[in-house]
Amino acid sequence: DAKTTQPNSMESNEEEPVHLPCNHSTISGTDYIHWYRQLPSQGPEYVIHGLTSNVNNRMASLAIAEDRKSSTLILHRATLRDAAVYYCILRDGGPTYGGATNKLIFGTGTLLAVQP
Amino acid sequence: EAGVAQSPRYKIIEKRQSVAFWCNPISGHATLYWYQQILGQGPKLLIQFQNNGVVDDSQLPKDRFSAERLKGVDSTLKIQPAKLEDSAVYLCASSLNFQLAGEIRGYEQYFGPGTRLTVT
């Protein structure tokens, strides 16, 4: 299973942009890049995913390097509610069993602290 | 839309006792997952169901853990007998998963609040 590397922790100030990096140098052509976050005492929450092109949604933006060996999750204006552990995960988009999707393998993620 | 429901939220048992967790996924979601999250680590997949069939249980300690998903809706995860190292948060998640134009869509996973198990 392809692995990702993230910083253990990062700090940001409220209302400033946050760039969370992720390295995945062994990514394969069928791997999708997923980001989930986990707020304190809650289950993980889907944030965004992409394959090759940059992606935007209401929560964040995902910038994917041209060689796909790294990506960056961008929170455009951090709020105190964005303090969480952010997981960068590679999901194999190759052939699956019976319509199911290949599993997510979580690492330890990046703990983001947001200062007021 | 109601989210993934889990119960109980907390459970304390002694080692060698048994325990069961219940999960009700989001209505219509075909895929259900059970994860174990030990303090300080990311969630680890224990078992994945597609409707009521098992897709992946490679990380499930089958000598003590069992799970079922009757009628392809609710699911239960059981531990018997429990060990100290089973202390963790047990998370249930579900995803829609459907095929459109030959591609799988709706694979975003929605997680429940988890059950915190303490084994003493």
Describe this structure in words.
- By secondary structure, chain A is mainly β.
- Chain A is 0% helix and 45% strand.
- Chain A is globular, with a radius of gyration of 14 Å.
- Chain A starts with 8 loop residues before the first strand and ends with a strand.
- The mean pLDDT of chain A is 91.
- By secondary structure, chain B is mostly beta strands.
- Chain B is 0% helix and 51% strand.
- Chain B is built from no helices and 13 strands.
- Chain B has strands at 5-7, 10-13, 19-24, 31-37, 44-50, 53-56, 65-68, 75-79, 88-95, 98-100, 103-105, 110-111, 115-119.
- In chain B, the strands form three sheets. In chain B, strands 2, 4, 5, 6, 9, 12 and 13 form a seven-stranded mixed beta sheet that branches.
- The radius of gyration of chain B is 14 Å and the shape is elongated.
- The model of chain B has no long low-confidence stretch (mean pLDDT 92).
- The chains are: A mainly beta (116), B mainly beta (120).
- Chain A binds chain B through residues 36, 41-46, 49, 85, 87, 91, 93, 96-101, 103-109, and chain B through 4, 30-31, 33, 40-45, 48, 50, 53, 55-56, 91, 93, 95, 97-99, 104, 107-114.
